[in-house]
Amino acid sequence: xxxxxxxxxxxxxxxxxxxxxxxxxxxxxxxxxxxxxxxxxxxxxxxxxxxxxxxxxxxxxxxxxxxxxxxxxxxxxxxxxxxxxxxxxxxxxxxxxxxxxxxxxxxxxxxxxxxxxxxxxxxxxxxxxxxxxxxxxxxxxxxxxxxxxxxxxxxxxxxxxxxxxxxxxxxxxxxxxxxxxxxxxxxxxxxxxxxxxxxxxxxxx
Length: 205
What we know:
single chain; Hypothetical protein af1432; 11 helices; globular; EC 3.1.3.89; 5'-deoxynucleotidase
């Protein structure tokens, strides 16, 4: 284990997500914390899941999807931090090692940081390898949508540092839209408004 998470410390570690700044090594106009990012992923994933349930007859629970999204960065607060993507995905062997560390930290946070009667329920939410694959896919789509939204906001303010990030994330979002009709529906019906100015949002249709 990378860390020993003492009994009762789980929530304390999660609350430290606000201390972790995303996009390390990048120059940004407005800093984004992992706490902010997790909130946005939860909101987006809940909307996608609700669309999936009501329009496409999916069997997952939108509320559970949102909760999984809130905790999807748990290992970053528990000791891993936010590693730059070029480093994290430098080669398959290194990526596998990082993923193992993340699983170990998630396991420690749940099984050491929480009382035993919470273990089963929280393990299926926090430990990413335990999460239902459809829920995990929706959260991943929301994760990329939130990152794309942030990257666009930086790029639209003239920050060229995010040109490559926007290009990559645009491709990822397009793939999610192709794989999941509820993601596509969210993107077509709601995402464009997320890039508008306050004045544009305030005008009647």
